[in-house]
Amino acid sequence: MATSDLSEDSKSKGIIWGFGLFIAIVLLVLVILGGWWGSEPNTFNVEEEALTRAKLTDVKEMHIGFVYTNTLAHMAEVLMHKPGGYITNDVAPPGLFLDNIQSWEYGALVMLRDATTALRNHFARNQSQSTEDPDLTKAEPYFYYERNSWALPSTESEYQKGIEALHQYMEHLSKPDVNNKLAQFYPRADNLWQYVEVVIKRLGGLSSRLTASTGGALHPSLLKKTDKQDDFDIQIASSWLQIDDIFYEARGASWALLHILQAIKHDFSAILMDKRAMNTVDIMIHELQNSLQPITSPMVLNGSGFGLFANYSLSMANSIARANAAALDLRDVMNRG
């Protein structure tokens, strides 16, 4: 009797230990996958990627606009094919809990959308009343599809259609379409000026939100309700739960804009040299590269401005603010006759 009791007790303990070991292994795998999937993609060389695409599609000459458009398409490909794929629409662990990389994806996606809209509305049109490019008319709406759709259709499937439409536009820059027409790309100062206006607003908004991580901003509870609106914007302190999300959103936006500016530097080189604005673009690129320095802490530090610990958000805000100042200069230069 005692022997059978001991045997049953050993079996039950074995089952418990086995189940506990299984849970521990699953958690360990999820943690390892989470660390891998949550890592930010590396930067890439926009000209080398364009050359690779040209060889793949047997394009003999990369016309103006090829590098810019390929950069947008490749950025979208990176979003979908980086470790873990596109994370924002995940419905299961570990992707479901990786809010930092989801914020990173959103920041990059916003910049991708802005650049695609600029390509459709400005860079590929000669005048405001000229006909839109049919490939870009298809491409742009796909990137504005909801970013967290898991199925029917999934976000990835819609973005892939946008990538394919961009590739069609790139092909038609050198090869006529079914109507025997070539796609166009107009690297003019007024076109670039209109896009830079959008960039200025994006960078300004990110800089303000990053700066709101410090104690200098007002907490919402301190604001008095009033029927009158002040003539100035009040900076509201960010919730401590949002600080890392805003930081990684800014990282994603900086990553995307860095590549877009490098492509603009290539395809708009003639007008930038003529306006003596190449150095201004280089300053923007340099500041965005500074904002993407590797993070050495396992968490986003949020020390006070003159405290013992660093404040990652303030460091990021400084780099983005300097890039925004250069963007203001670029806008003014492009707007001059």
Describe what this molecule looks like in 3D.
The chain is an all-alpha fold and 337 residues long. The chain has one domain (42-216, 237-335). It contains eleven helices and no strands. Helix 4 (99-123) runs parallel beside helix 8, helix 5 packs antiparallel against helix 6 (155-172) and helix 7 (189-211) runs antiparallel to helix 8. The mean pLDDT is 87.
What layout of secondary structure does this protein have?
Elements: H1 2-37, H2 46-56, H3 66-81, H4 99-123, H5 134-143, H6 155-172, H7 189-211, H8 243-267, H9 269-274, H10 278-291, H11 312-335
Tell me the structural class.
mainly alpha
How much is the average pLDDT?
87
Strand content: under 5%
Number of strands: 0
How do the SSEs run, as a string of H and E?
HHHHHHHHHHH
Distance between the termini: 101 Å
Please describe the structure with a list of short key phrases separated by commas or semicolons:
337 residues, mainly alpha, 62% helix, globular
Summarize the structure.
With 337 residues, the chain is mainly alpha-helical.
